[in-house]
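Z., the sequence and structure:
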Amino acid sequence: MRKFTMETARKIMANEISVEALLKQYPEYKDEVLHELGEIRKGAAANVVQAIIDRYTASARTANTKISKSGMNEATVNAFLPNIIKARFAVYLLEQLNVAVSANTPAGNVRFNHWDGTILQRLLFRKGFERKPVSLPLFRFFWRFIMDKRILMPLVNKKGIYCFYSKELIKELTMLIGERKCLEIAAGDGTLTRFLNEAGTFCTATDDYSWKHYIDYPAFVEKADAKTALAKYNPEVVLCSWPVPKNPYEKHVFKADSVQLYIVIGTRNPQTTGDFEAYHNAEKFTMELDERLSALIVPPSEDNAVYVFRKKAAGEL
C-alpha cells in the first residue's frame, strides 16, 4: 500500500496539487479508474456511468469525513486518501470528453474521441445509429462534460437524425394522444412512432421515401405521401418531426376532416423546419408553442419547439 506524508495529504485534500500532476505521481490509481470507465464499452446500460460517478463521489465524501475526524492520522490517511485521488481522476477524465479535431476540420473527418463517443453512444443509441428514448436527467448530467457540443448534430444529420426524444417527451405525447387513431407523416426512420408504440400508444408511420439517399427506411414505415396517408387512415392525431421548411405536405393535415390534433416537433425558425405559411393559414385550428414540451427535446436548444394545433369547436369557427 502506498504511503503518503501528512503534507502531501494536506495538499491533495486542499486541491493544491493539479490533477495532471496527480496522474503522473499515482498512475496505478489512474489505471483503476480507466478500468472502471472501460466497463462502459462492454454493452452495459448508460446508468453504469452514473453509478461510477456516484460511487467515486460517495467514496471521496467518506474519505474526507474519515480523515477529518481522525485529525490526519497516518493510518487513516493511507487507507482513504487513494479514494479522493481516484474521485478526482474520474471527474477529470469525464471532463476531458472533447472532440479529436478542431472546428476547422472538414466535416467528413470529424470524429468524437473515445470517451465522447462512448458516453454519447450509451446515452443516445441502442446500437449503431438506432436511437433510444433518452433519460433526461442522465443526459443533462453528462451533457455538461461534452466540451464541443456543436458537432453532435452535424454528425448525425447525415443519417437523417435531427433530434433525440427524451423519455419524458414520449410520456407526454402518449398522454396527449390517448386512445385516438394516430399517424406520423414524413416519419423518416420511424423512431418517434417506434417509441410511441413501445410505450403502448399505437401509431402508424408513413413517409414518401424521398430521402432514401440519407435514410434507411425500416419495413414498418409505410411508403406513402402525407395526402395519401391521411386519406387512407383518417387519423384523429397526426405527428410530424422536423418537417422540411416550406414543405408541400403539412397543408394537407389542416384540410383533413378527421384530424383533431396535430403535433409538430421542430424549431422556431421557419428557415429550418415547418410550413409556417400553412400554420398561420390554418383557420380551423388553434396554434400553441408548448414551451414545456419543447424543453424535453434533446439536445437542449433555445430553438427547439413543439407546436400543438387543436381543431376549434364548431362555435369557435
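The chain has three domains: 6-95, 107-157, 164-316. Confidence is low (pLDDT under 50) at residues 97-110.

Let me know what you think.
H.
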